[in-house]
Amino acid sequence: MRDVALELLNIVALATGVAYAVLAARRNRLCWIAGAVASGAAAFLSAVNKLPMQAALQVFYVGMAAYGWWSWSRNSSEGELAVGVWPVAAHLVVAAVLVALSFVTARWLEPGSFAAWPLLDSLTTWFSVFATWLAARARLENWIYWIVLNAVMVFLFFAQRVWGMALLSVFLTVIAVAGFVSWQRKFRAQVTAAVPA
């Protein structure tokens, strides 16, 4: 019975996770509702499968869904959601901080040996937090992070035999590529429209 319940939860996480990514790529704020459901299911699945940082990340996502809904609603109140970018130097500073933080949390996770992949779990968690913040702020680069992160999570979940989450990560990698292309077109159109004739 437990296995059936976990498989159903995998299906829920998969379906709502794909819905989140598709809606986000289309800049539709309903993505945040689908994301909250997907994250709730994924939090439980990650905890059961000894990925504590991923479980904590999914709980964070539930909170970020509320923030994302609010941010996108506010930013699109005057029309279509605008797409922005972040400076490269800022990305480098944040990346250095997140790598250092990942080593600290991986070291913290190791003694109890509860975590199956302490460093990889930590890296994907901290960078996912940042990518989610970028998505909530409608920054183009969030999709680049998601392409890499989802590809890594395919391996992570596959190695732990969490098939539904591994499959979801495959779909999310493909959708992240499509999301990047879509948002990049939007960003270029904004830049073109802002240039005086």
Describe this structure in words.
The protein contains 7 helices and no strands. The model has no long low-confidence stretch (mean pLDDT 85). It is mainly α. The protein has one domain.
What is the CA-CA span between the terminal residues? 66 Å
The helix tally amounts to: 7
Q: What value does the Rg take, in angstroms?
A: 17 Å
Globally, the shape reads globular
Q: Element order, helices and strands?
A: HHHHHHH
Counting DSSP E segments of at least 2 residues, the number of strands comes to 0
Task: Work out the count of structural domains.
Answer: 1
SS class? mainly alpha
Major sheet, described briefly? none
Strand content: under 5%
List low-confidence stretches: none
Give the averaged pLDDT, no decimals.
85
Residues in helices, as a percent range: over 70%
How do the strands and helices of this protein lay out in sequence?
Blueprint: H1 2-25, H2 31-48, H3 52-75, H4 88-109, H5 118-136, H6 142-159, H7 163-194
What are the key terms here?
197 residues
Task: Give a quick precis of the structure.
The protein contains seven helices and no strands.
